[in-house]
Amino acid sequence: MDSTPEARLDQHGIILPIPPAPVATYVGTAVSGSLLVVSGQLPLVDGKLFATGKLGADVATEIGVEAARYCMINIIAQVRAAVGDLSRVRRVVRLGGFIACVPSFTQHAAVMNGASDLAVAIFGEAGRHARSTIGVPSLPLDAAVEVEGLFEIG
C-alpha cells in the first residue's frame, strides 16, 4: 500500500475538486511560516451544497457526517492548491467544525468525525489533530456544516 496522501486519495476513490472560491471578502488559504490556514469550507459537491438546514431538525446526523467529509475534501483541495504536493503536509494541526443545529442537538462530535476520520485516512498519523466542534444557529448559504483547518507544511 502506497503511503502518500495522493495514493490514499486514489485508494478511497476521491478526486479532488477545483477549490471552491471564497463567498465573501477573504482568501481560501493563508500561509505564515510553516503554518497553512484553510478558511472554512462548506460541503460543496459539484458546486452545489450537499446538505442545507439544521441538524436535529431537517438534517439527519448521518447526512451531517457525510457533509463534514465533503468539507474535508474541499479543505484538502485547498491545501493542494496552496502547496502543490500533499506530501508537504507534515501535520494536520487542528480542525474546527461548525454544525448548524437546533439547541437540543448533542451529536456534534459524531458529525465532525466525518472530517476527522478522512484527515487520518489521507494523512495517516500526521492527520491526527486537535479539534473544536460547536453548534451554531446558522451558516453561510444555509449550509449544515462548515469545517476549517490548520496545517503544518514543509
Descriptive key words:
alpha+beta, 154 residues, single chain, 60s Ribosomal Protein L30, Chain: A, five-stranded mixed β-sheet, 7 strands, two-stranded antiparallel ribbon
Topology of helices and strands:
Layout: H1 5-11, E1 29-32, E2 35-41, E3 44-45, E4 48-49, H2 61-83, E5 89-100, H3 108-123, E6 130-136, E7 145-153
Parallel strand pairs: 5-6
Antiparallel strand pairs: 1-2, 2-7, 3-4, 5-7
Helix pairs in contact: 2-3
Pfam families: YjgF_endoribonc
Organism: Nguyenibacter vanlangensis
InterPro entries: Endoribo_LPSP/chorism_mut-like, RutC-like_sf
Question: Can you give a write-up of this model?
Answer:
- There is one protein chain.
- The chain is of the alpha+beta class and 154 residues long.
- It has one domain (5-20, 27-153): 2-Layer Sandwich (60s Ribosomal Protein L30, Chain: A), CATH 3.30.1330.
- The protein contains three helices and seven strands, in the order H-E-E-E-E-H-E-H-E-E.
- The protein has helices at 5-11, 61-83, 108-123; strands spanning 29-32, 35-41, 44-45, 48-49, 89-100, 130-136, 145-153.
- The strands form two sheets. The protein has a five-stranded mixed sheet with strand order 1-2-7-5-6.
- Strand 3 and strand 4 (48-49) form a beta hairpin.
- Helix 2 runs parallel beside helix 3 (108-123).
- The chain is globular and about 40 Å long.
- The chain starts with a helix and ends with a strand.
- The mean pLDDT is 96.
